[in-house]
Each structure stands twice: as C-alpha cells, then as structure tokens.
C-alpha cells in the first residue's frame, strides 16, 4: 500500500512540475506573441533582433529582470512586500491543478491521466483560488507604502469582487446543464452532446468579460493604469519581484483561456470526430496527444483574443467598470440563470 501511495504521489508531483513548467513557457512566449500582435495591429515589426523573428526576446527580458538590482523602499513592510508577488505567482500556478488536459495515456503497465486532481468540485476550486489571487496584489500594494500602489490595490480588490459574482452565476448555469462540478465530467458531457457555447451563449459572454476583469487586462486594467497610478500596485517593484507579478498575469491569461475552452468549447474534444473509432485506429497514446493539441489550440485562440482586445479597445473609466459589473452583467447573469432553470424544468416535464 505504501509503495502504491508513493507511486501516486510521484506521478502527481511529476504532473504538477510538467504543468507549471509548461505554463511558465507559455506565459514567457505570450509576451513575445503580444508584442507581435500589437506590432501587426499598429503596422510595425515588433521584436526582431534577439533570435530569428525575436524568438529569444523573452529570454532576454527574463535575464534583464533577473539581473536587475533588487530595490526595496525604505519604509516598506519588507516581509509582506516580498510575500505579495510570491502569493500572486503561487496562486496563478495552482489554478491549473484541476484542468483535464487530455484523455489518459499508457506509460508502462499503467494508464496516466494528465490531470493533477480530478475533484468533484473542480470549478468551485477555481473560483476559490481566483478569489485568493487578489491577496497578493493587496499585500504588495499596501506593503509598498506608496499611495499610488495602494489605490491600485483597492481598485483590484473592488474590481475582482464585483466581477466574481456574475462569473459565479454564469458557472451555476453550467452546473445546471451538466449536473456536475467536475471539469472532466463537464468535458465528457460535451463530448456526448452539444458544446456549452451552443447551450449557453449568454453565459459564455458573461464569463469571458469577467475573465478579462479577473486578469486585470484592458479594458479592465485600472489597477495598473500607467497614466493615472504610475504603474499601479507594482509601482515600487523591480527585478524578479516585478517579474513575478507580470508572469502571474500571463499565466492567469493562459489558464483562463484553457478554462474557457474547457467549460464552453468541449475542452480536449476534437470537433466532428468519433473519438472511440479514432482511438481504436491510432491507439490511446496518439489520441491523448491529439486531445491535448485540440485543447491547446483552443486556448491559444483565446489568448489571441485577450491580446486583440487589449490593443483595440480603450480603458474604461472606473465608474463605467463598476456600472458594467453591478448594473449590467449581474442582472443579465441572474436572468440567464432563471431562464436556464425554467427551460430545464420544462424539458424534464
């Protein structure tokens, strides 16, 4: 029994290490992709000096952050000043623990399922981790002892609280349709029927808008509005502490894109393909690879949407941001939930 337990622990630790490493690589090259997307939209080249097509630019940026001087403000709360970006980075990596990346594959005599934890309250876990993410921003902004940083932290806290409510209600409609909180169960339900984007288009729009707000992306980037708050909650940060905040944002974008694909676009499901017959033809391992590529392709599309919106839509005023969350999205999410419940009740009767 002990050997089986240690084998399971080793398997999960390996999956966690691979997932975190993969998320870091995607986040690193998302910075390169964002510069390229911005350059294309603005009719210029973007990074093209470090490596072919600028592919080594993320490594150059990481090296610059790593070797820059660490500066801690004299009147800052040093422990909390360091703890803030640490929490932001750790929680960003924790969010992906319940995501089913593909079907299982054979490894020796065992079948490994690429999901760190298949818990039956999967997206409640995601909401919980997302709600904790604001603590890193709040601690870092308050510990900086800078009024602009504190204002950015307060904006981030109120923004995340405001948009968590409609996001949670949008997720309730997914629960009502699928009958499970397990992300793998939600994916398997979409493989057997319709994708949730067809059944819940309004819920998808609400969730997408809230995802922009939760990740502090334009047009919801008021916590770090450079022209108002000189960088916002990370104004006093430098070197890798600043890098942790920036990396956490891009990891959150990647994980949010994967979650959107999982909840509304079938997850690792390959459209217009009979998975059972294809698995019999090519084998379990190749099918797992195809499933992973399907999910990753969908996630890359939504990462592009995040970047596209940033470089095309201007930032909201703060009153517009709060008005959208409380007076538009929240009532819309409630109405959508009530209509979904009514339709399910009528269909069951």
UniProtKB/TrEMBL annotation:
<dbReference type="GO" id="GO:0003954">
    <property type="term" value="F:NADH dehydrogenase activity"/>
</dbReference>
<feature type="transmembrane region" description="Helical">
    <location>
        <begin position="286"/>
        <end position="309"/>
    </location>
</feature>
<dbReference type="GO" id="GO:0009060">
    <property type="term" value="P:aerobic respiration"/>
</dbReference>
<dbReference type="InterPro" id="IPR001694">
    <property type="entry name" value="NADH_UbQ_OxRdtase_su1/FPO"/>
</dbReference>
<keyword id="KW-0812">Transmembrane</keyword>
<comment type="subunit">
    <text>NDH-1 is composed of 14 different subunits. Subunits NuoA, H, J, K, L, M, N constitute the membrane sector of the complex.</text>
</comment>
<keyword id="KW-1003">Cell membrane</keyword>
<keyword id="KW-1133">Transmembrane helix</keyword>
<keyword id="KW-0830">Ubiquinone</keyword>
<keyword id="KW-0874">Quinone</keyword>
<comment type="function">
    <text>NDH-1 shuttles electrons from NADH, via FMN and iron-sulfur (Fe-S) centers, to quinones in the respiratory chain. The immediate electron acceptor for the enzyme in this species is believed to be ubiquinone. Couples the redox reaction to proton translocation (for every two electrons transferred, four hydrogen ions are translocated across the cytoplasmic membrane), and thus conserves the redox energy in a proton gradient. This subunit may bind ubiquinone.</text>
</comment>
<dbReference type="GO" id="GO:0005886">
    <property type="term" value="C:plasma membrane"/>
</dbReference>
<feature type="transmembrane region" description="Helical">
    <location>
        <begin position="165"/>
        <end position="187"/>
    </location>
</feature>
<feature type="transmembrane region" description="Helical">
    <location>
        <begin position="329"/>
        <end position="347"/>
    </location>
</feature>
<keyword id="KW-1278">Translocase</keyword>
<feature type="transmembrane region" description="Helical">
    <location>
        <begin position="79"/>
        <end position="101"/>
    </location>
</feature>
<feature type="transmembrane region" description="Helical">
    <location>
        <begin position="193"/>
        <end position="213"/>
    </location>
</feature>
<dbReference type="Pfam" id="PF00146">
    <property type="entry name" value="NADHdh"/>
</dbReference>
<dbReference type="GO" id="GO:0016655">
    <property type="term" value="F:oxidoreductase activity, acting on NAD(P)H, quinone or similar compound as acceptor"/>
</dbReference>
<keyword id="KW-0520">NAD</keyword>
<protein>
    <recommendedName>
        <fullName>NADH-quinone oxidoreductase subunit H</fullName>
        <ecNumber>7.1.1.-</ecNumber>
    </recommendedName>
</protein>
<keyword id="KW-0472">Membrane</keyword>
<feature type="transmembrane region" description="Helical">
    <location>
        <begin position="13"/>
        <end position="32"/>
    </location>
</feature>
<dbReference type="GO" id="GO:0048038">
    <property type="term" value="F:quinone binding"/>
</dbReference>
<dbReference type="InterPro" id="IPR018086">
    <property type="entry name" value="NADH_UbQ_OxRdtase_su1_CS"/>
</dbReference>
<feature type="transmembrane region" description="Helical">
    <location>
        <begin position="121"/>
        <end position="144"/>
    </location>
</feature>
<comment type="similarity">
    <text>Belongs to the complex I subunit 1 family.</text>
</comment>
<feature type="transmembrane region" description="Helical">
    <location>
        <begin position="244"/>
        <end position="266"/>
    </location>
</feature>
């Amino acid at each position: 029994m002990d050997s089986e337990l240690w084998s399971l622990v080793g398997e999960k630790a390996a999956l966690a290490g691979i997932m975190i490493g993969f998320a870091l690589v995607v986040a690193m090259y998302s910075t390169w992709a964002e510069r390229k997307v911005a350059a294309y939209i603005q009719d210029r080249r973007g990074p093209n000096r470090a490596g072919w097509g600028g592919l080594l630019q993320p490594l150059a940026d990481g090296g610059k952050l790593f070797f820059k001087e660490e500066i801690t403000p004299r009147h800052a709360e040093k422990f909390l000043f360091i703890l803030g970006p640490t929490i932001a980075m750790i929680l960003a990596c924790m969010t992906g623990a319940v995501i089913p990346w593909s079907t299982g594959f054979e490894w020796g005599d065992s079948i490994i399922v690429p999901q760190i934890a298949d818990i039956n309250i999967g997206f409640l876990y995601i909401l919980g981790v997302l709600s904790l993410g604001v603590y890193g921003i709040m601690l870092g902004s308050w510990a900086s002892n800078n009024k602009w940083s504190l204002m950015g932290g307060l904006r981030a806290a109120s923004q995340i609280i405001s948009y968590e409510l409609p996001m949670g209600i949008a997720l309730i409609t997914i629960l009502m349709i699928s009958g499970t909180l397990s992300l793998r169960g939600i994916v398997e339900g979409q493989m057997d029927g319709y994708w949730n984007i067809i059944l819940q288009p309004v819920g998808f729009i609400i969730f997408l808008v809230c995802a922009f707000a939760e990740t502090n992306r334009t047009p919801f980037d008021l916590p770090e509005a450079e022209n108002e708050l000189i960088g916002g909650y990370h104004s006093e940060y430098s070197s890798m502490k600043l890098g942790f905040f920036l990396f956490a944002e891009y990891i959150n974008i990647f994980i949010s894109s994967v979650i959107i694909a999982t909840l509304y676009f079938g997850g690792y499901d390959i459209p217009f393909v009979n998975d059972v017959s294809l698995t019999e033809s090519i084998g379990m391992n190749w099918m797992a690879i195809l499933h992973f590529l399907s999910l990753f392709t969908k996630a890359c599309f939504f990462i592009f949407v995040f970047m596209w919106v940033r470089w095309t839509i201007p930032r909201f005023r703060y009153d517009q941001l709060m008005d959208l969350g409380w007076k538009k999205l929240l009532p819309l999410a409630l109405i959508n939930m009530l209509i979904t419940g009514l339709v399910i009740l009528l269909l069951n009767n």
